[in-house]
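Reopening closed ticket. The problem is back. First fold of the pair:
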Amino acid sequence: MSDPSAKSKPPALAQPYPQETVRETFDSIVIAFILAFVFRAFIIEAFVIPTGSMAATLNGAHGNMVCENCGWEFAYGLNDPANAPRGATPFDEQSLAVCQNCRYRNDTRETNDTRRNQKSGDRILVFKWPFDIGGELLGPKRWDVVVFKTPSDGTTNFIKRLAGLPDEVLQIVDGDVYTVSTDKLSEETIQSLDDARHLKYLRRTNGDPTEIAELNQHVSESVGTVLAELDQKMHIARKTELAQEVLWKVAYDHDYPPKELDDDQPRWVVTDGDSAWTVGNRTLSFNGVEQPEQRVELHAQLNGMCSYNTLRRWISRTQSRHFPVSDLRVRFVLDFKEASGSVRVGLTKRSELFIGEISPDGTARILKASTEHPTETTELCSTNIPNFDVERKIEFEFRNVDYRASMHIDGETILATNDNQYAPDLAELRRSHPPKTTPPYIEAADTNVELAHVVVELDQYYISNSARLPLVTNWGTQNNPILLRDNEFFMLGDNTAQSKDSRLWNYEDVGPHLQVRGEGYQQGTVPRDQLIGRAFFVYWPSGLRTSLIPFLKDTGWIPNFGNMRWIR
C-alpha cells in the first residue's frame, strides 16, 4: 500500500554544480565593473581640484586661516607654479595671507600643523552625459564651470568658467566680458578678425616671413575700423544670477570689524562732525528724527585682490597690482524704528552715481546723478512695495553690476534699470584707464533706523592683460578681440590674477594632438571635442582635523558637511 504523503511531495530540485555558482558570481562582478566604467565614462565622474585658478569658488591645495585681526575665516593657496603665471608662494616658505575682509597680513607659518600638511583640493562631481547629447538645452552654456582637456597635452584636466561661445566675437574690457554674434558683423570685420587668427597661426608655426610681414601690416591697418564696429555692436555678457551670487567677494563685513586699525584696514566713517550716526557694536544706527541727510562712508580698498593668493614677506604694504573694482553690492538687515524719513545707498561707476532709496511707507526708488553734481538727481524707476510692513525687519540689497543698478528686498528684485537708462560706452572704456573707485555710502534723514549685518561685496573683475600689438597678442583681451569659430570655446578662471586660461595660452601650450589639426585649432580656445562635462557639486571639501586621535591629528579625515555645496 502506498503512502499518500509520499505522492504529494514535490520532486527534489536539481542542485547547481559548484563551478556554475562560481561562474555566475564572476559574471555578476564583471557586469558590475562594466557598469561602473560606463557610468564613469559617460554619466558622472569625480575629479580633484589641484590648483587655485578657480578660487574662491573652488579650492586647490590650500591652508585655512582665521584672521588674527578680525576673525574672518578664509582659505589661502599653496605652491602652484604650473598654473600661476605670476608666481606663487611655496607652502613651507615664510609668507603672508591677506585677509579678504580687513586686509590684515597674517603670517601663515603659525596656522598649520608641524608637518606642513596642506588641506586637499576640493573633490567635485562632473556631469558628462549632457555635453555628449548636446543641444541648446543640455549643451555648454556661458558661465558654466567646465572640465576640459588642456590644450598643452590633451590628457591633463583643467577646470574653468566658460565665457565665450562658438560663432561670436569676445573682448574683455574693464573687467567685463563683451560679446557679439558673428551674424551681426560685416564681412569686412569678420575677415579682418580671421586674418588676425591666421597671423597668430603663422607665427606659432614659423610660417613664411614675407607672408607674416604683409599680413601683419594689413591687420594693423584694419584695427581701427574693426574696433569701431565692435564698439557699436558688442554687448556686455551679464552673468546668470546663480553664477553672480558665487562670484561676489567680500570687501568688508561689519560683523567682523578689525581690532586694530591702520590705513589698510576698512571701516565705516562718519562724515559729519555732529552726526546722528553711530558705527560701533557691529551695527550702523541713525537716530535723527527731524534731522537732515547725514551719511557714513566706507573707507576701504576696492580692488580685485583675492585672499587665496599669498604674498611674500618683502612685498611693501603700499604696493598694489590690483585693478579698481566699481561693480559693488551693499546689503544689510534694515530695521526702521520710526515711520518717517528714508535710507539711501550710493554706488558710483566712474562718473555716474546711482542711489537706491527706501522709505518706511514702502516707497522705493533708484536715482541717478553725476559725481560732479551729486545733488542733481534724476529718478530712473520707482515702485511702492506691496504689503510692506515697517514693523518687520527686511533684508535690503542695492547693487550696481554689469551696467545694471538694482534693488532687492528679501531676495526679490523690486527695481532694476534697463539698457536705455544705463549702458556702457565701450569706446570710452577702451581708451581710458579705470579710475580709483569711489567708496559706497549710506545716508539717512528724518528717521530712526538700525542696520545690522552690513556687508559690501565686489563683483568678479577679469584682468585684461596689456598687449603689444592689437589683434595679435593675447586672446580676447582689451583691443584684442577673438573670433570664436564653430565649436570653439573661451575659458576664464575665477581667480583671474592666478589663472592660466584662454587669455594666456602661449605657443608652447599647443600639444601635438592639436598641432596636427593645423588651422583647425585656434590658439586660446578649447575645441568642443575636448570638453568633458559640467561641474555641479563639491562632494568632499578638505576634511576637518582633530587632535582627539593623535596619529590622525594631521589628516583631514572628518567630513566637512557644512562646506559641501553646489557649483554655480
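Second fold of the pair, where the issue appears:
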Amino acid sequence: MDKENVAEILQEIGVLLELKGENPFKTRAYASAARTIEGLSESLEKLISENRLGEIKGIGDALQKKITELVTTGELAYYEELKASLPAGLLDMLKIPGMGPKKVKAVYDRLGVETVDQLEQACRSGRVAMLDGFGEKSQAKILEGIQFRRQYATRHLLVQALAWAEPILDELRAHPDVLRCSTAGSVRRFKEVIGDVDFLVSSKAPAAVLDFFTGREGVMKVLAKGDTKSSVILEGGIQADLRVVSDVEYPYALAYFTGSKEHNIAMRQRAIQRGLRLNEYGLFRSKEETRDPELRVACATEDEIFSQLGLAYIPPELREDHGEFLVAETGTMPRLVEWTDLKGSLHNHSNWSDGRGTVAEIAEFARENGFAYWAINDHSRASFQAHGLDADRLRKQVLEIREVNRRLSEEGCEFRLLTGVEVDILGDGRLDLPDDVLEDLDVVVASLHQGFSRQEPENTRRLIRAAENRQVHMLGHLTGRLLLEREPYPVNPQAVIDVCAETGTWIELNAHPARFDLDWRLWPYAKSMGVKCVINCDAHRNEHAGFLRLGAGIARKGGLQREDVINTLSLRSLMKALQGKREGGRRS
C-alpha cells in the first residue's frame, strides 16, 4: 500500500473518530499523520524495513504500528472495526456539500438520521432547520447538495476514467487477437466529466477478445455479453463497454462511437449532401441507409473519411459541433498545443502554505523532469485555512527560492524556480497583498477563494479590478467550479475576458482534474480577443505535475495552439512576457 492510500485511510480514521465524538486531539493526530505521510520523500516500505518510521515527528508508537500493519498487509483491523461501529450511510452524508463531520454527527445523534435518504426526509419535514447550528438556510443548502450529488451520481472525472481506461487499453493492444484498438466516446474526446468508458477493437476473433475483457482482473460485474459487444462494471463503479468489429469497419466505427452526437449528425448531413450515407459500418455510395459492402467507399483511417467529406482531419477533442467544421472546411487544421510543448507551470504550492514539498524538493523534481521553469505561488494571508503567507513570510520564501536558484546556477543548471504568490482577491476587488510586495515577485496569480456566493455583478467587478492591476499576471480558476462538487460561482466570464484583453492579463487553464477552469467552451472567445492562456497544474505535490497533460488536452478541446499558451515560451521569452504585463497594466 503506497503513501497516498495510507494517508487516505488515516484521514478517514480521523473523520470516523470525530463522528464517534472522540477526543479532538486524537482525531487531529490522524489528520496530521496523514499530511506527514503524504509529504514523505522516502518510501514507507524503506522507513519500515529500516525501523525509522517512529523517528518521524508526529508518528507515535500506536500510529507506527497501524501504518506498519497497513503497509505490510494491505489491511488494518482497527480501521475495519471502526467502520463497522458506525452506520455506513454517515460517510455518504459527508459527501453532501455543507455536511462536515460535526453536522453529520448532530443529525445522527439528535435525529437518528443514518442515510442520505433519511437526511432528505428530515430536511423536507423541517426537523434539520430546528437543530442548533443549522437553520432554514443550511437546511435548504443541504437539500440542494443532495440533489446535486444525485444528479452526478453516475458521472466521473476524466482523470478517473483515464486511470481505468489506459491500463485496459494497454492490455488490449498486447492481446494477440487484437488488430487495432482505441478508446472512444467522451474519454477519447477528453470531456472533463464522463459517464462510462468505451473501447473499440478490430479483430478476426471477437469471442476471444470479449472473453478476455469480461474476465480480466478488476471486473466487478458483467452486465451483458454478446457476439460483438460486452458491458462490465469495473472496480470503482464505472461502466466500461467494448465493441469488436472487423478491421474494414474499424475506422467508420471509431469515428461513429467517438461522437459526439451533434458532431455525428453534422457528419452524416455532409455525407447526404454528397449523395453518400455515413454510419458506423461505413461510408456508402447510396441515397438510402445501407450496410452493403459493395457500396462502401474504401477508407483505411478516419483521416480518409474526413477527406471524402471535404474536410481536414478533425482531432477527437474538437468533435463537439462547436465550430470545428468551419475550420476543417478550409482543408487544413491548425496544429493544436501538445503537452510536450509546455515548459513548466506558473501556479504551484509548497509546504510554506498547503503544498507538500519543500522549495528545494520541488526544484529538484522539476529540474529532473526536464522543465525549464517552475513557479511557487503559495496562498496569501486571507487563505488562513491554507496557512497563507503574509508579507514577511513571503519575503522569507523569496530569499529561500533565490538561494536554491543560486546553488543551481553554480552547478551549471539552466532551470529556474520562479517566485510568486496566489493572492486572494478581497471583497472589494483589492488584493490581499500590497503592490510593493507583489512587484518583487516573478509571477502573480490572483484568485477568488472566498465571498463568491455574492451576486454576479459583484464577483465580476472583483475579477475585473484584479485584472486591471498591473502586478497581476493572470487570473486563477476564473469561475471557481469544482466538477461534480460545486457549480461555478456567479460571474460574467465574457466581461472579464474583455478586460483581460484590454490589460494584457492572462487567464489560467487550471489543470487540476476537478477544475479545468477556464471551461474549454470559453477559450475560443478568449482566443478571438487575443487573451493568452496559461496551463497550470496548481500542484500541491510533485506528482500533480502530471496534470499538465490533462490541461493540454482541455486546451486542445478549446482549440488552442502553441502560440496561444504562455508557458510554451522559453525561460527568456517568458521573463520578457512577465515584465511586459507589468508595463502594460494599471495600478490598483
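Update: turned out to be a display glitch only; the data is intact. DSSP finds 24 helices and 17 strands in the chain. Residues 391-410 form the longest helix (20 residues). Please close again.
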